[in-house]
Amino acid sequence: MTTTTRSLPSCSSARHWPGVIVAALTATAAVMPGFTVGALASTIETDLHTARSTVGLAMSLFYAATAFGSPVAKRAAARLPVPTVLAAAALVASTVMLVAARATGPGMLTATLLVGGLSNALVQPVAGRLIAVRVPEHRRSLAAGVIGAALGAGALVPGLLVALVLPAYGWRSALLVAGIAALVPAALAPLARAPGSPPPPRKEAGAVGDEQRTVGRVLALWALAAALSATGNNAVATYFVELGTHSGLGTTVTGHLLSLSAVFAIAVRIIAGALTDRAPHRNPAVIVAMMLTGGLGLALVAIGPPTTFVLGAILAFSAGWGWTGLLLATTLRLVPGRTEDAGHTVQIGVYTGATIAPFTFGALSSAYGFPATVLAAAVAAVAAATAMTTGTLLLRRAG
């Protein structure tokens, strides 16, 4: 068959980074409602007199809305101007957090998070388009890593809120600050102007059918890998503060640790993207290694004592979440000319796993305790690495 990893048209302009940074800031703002509510979950549960599983269900619906809204978002990303899509996502995220700050019950909180999840679905498909048409090929892994770092930044801000705002002013003020901060990328959205998507590459006659079927299987396996890995890592990110206090750390210390872990996650995404641009064909192997390292981190978190919790948390956040940008860059190479499909594949995988994580983790941890549930998340990370490897081997055999 004819390989589909042909390069996309290169952009020689050096002015692509402002647009990439704006997309990363927007991605951070768009995902913040889910992460912020998760970081504040224990306080919200007490104040609203609701169970852990109820708040977990609200967060699951946020991620479910992103996953199920992805097909519609993919079409919007292809048709609407990039700045318009990014500004809309940031404005909705800001509104969601401002309204959630005034929630009087779990129903209102759930409804606002559902809207936030739908707007979050807009970001990854339009980010894939932006990278494809504005970033030179030899910088695409780095650009995807910068945008992928939004997941780390999305956890960094809530960690700071837990450490600096929550103790003195409460969870409502913390959500208010987060909502105001989400307005920044909306103001910067015009910097992300981009032309239309590149045309699909030509393929030899007779090869299209087999090629598309193989690519479809590979994308499905990679999306499954993203879902499995995200299930474990998102659960730990969501309940990080509660897990930290369960291991013996104070709430403020855990908030600082969440922020520190998020900084590591941001750094790993950017560094990994810069290094793999030198040999992008190795991206799948790097992704597998990161997933396995994240599984090791989850296993250390499951052990329980503060020392292993700190080490495991850093590994789970930095490596366990560090593959998202690389997977976006890898799928961009696999489906040139279908840039929205690349972002859609990553998004539907990550957020399907994220949908399963909060409610399932909340319910299982209530029944079996935190250690056993986190250990199950570590097993999911190993299964994710297996699915990623299977897809890569299938692609090599077909090529």
TrEMBL record:
Keywords: Cell membrane, Membrane, Transmembrane, Transmembrane helix
Localization annotation: Cell membrane
Domain of life of the native organism: Bacteria
Pfam family, one: MFS_1
InterPro entries in UniProt: MFS, MFS_dom, MFS_Efflux_Transporters, MFS_trans_sf
Membrane topology value: Multi-pass membrane protein
PROSITE patterns per the UniProt record, alphabetical: MFS (PS50850)
Residues annotated as transmembrane: 20-41, 53-73, 80-101, 107-130, 142-165, 171-192, 219-241, 253-272, 284-303, 309-336, 348-368, 374-395
Main location per the UniProt record: membrane
Domain Major facilitator superfamily (MFS) profile: 19-398
Listed PANTHER family: CHLORAMPHENICOL EFFLUX PUMP RV0191 (PTHR43124:SF3), PURINE EFFLUX PUMP PBUE (PTHR43124)
Name of the featured protein: MFS transporter
